[in-house]
Amino acid sequence: MTKNGRRGLFLLVATVANMLLTVILIFALLAAWFGVASLLGIESGKTAAPAILVAFIAAVVLSGFVYSRVLKSLRKRPDLEERFGLLK
């Protein structure tokens, strides 16, 4: 496989992993919110829309942070440029 092919595969896998992490975080944050709301006796129908919005925004921000941290740590590997052609 060529360097461009490996680069494309790397970016495709990284993007899919980032999207999967975002979806997992959305569901985890919503489960946490509705779990706390049920413990406190808050009616979940009234808080659903703001909770979904906040969970979505938080999940996108958190997954972006994790994505950048993982890429930053991968860029420190000396063989990454040779294998995938990614710039530091």
Brief sketch in words of this structure:
This protein is mainly alpha-helical and 88 residues long. It is 85% helix and 0% strand.
What does this structure look like?
The mean pLDDT is 85. Helix 1 runs antiparallel to helix 2 (44-75). The longest helix is centred in the N-terminal third of the chain and has 38 residues, at 3-40. This protein has helices spanning 3-40, 44-75, 80-84. The protein contains 3 helices and no strands. The two termini are 22 Å apart. It has one domain. It is 85% helix and 0% strand. It is elongated and about 55 Å long. With 88 residues, the chain is an all-alpha fold.
The general outline is: elongated
Q: Termini separation (Å)?
A: 22 Å
Q: Given the structure, what is the number of helices?
A: 3
Weakly predicted, low-confidence segments: none
What is this structure's SSE topology?
Layout: H1 3-40, H2 44-75, H3 80-84
Helix pairs in contact: 1-2
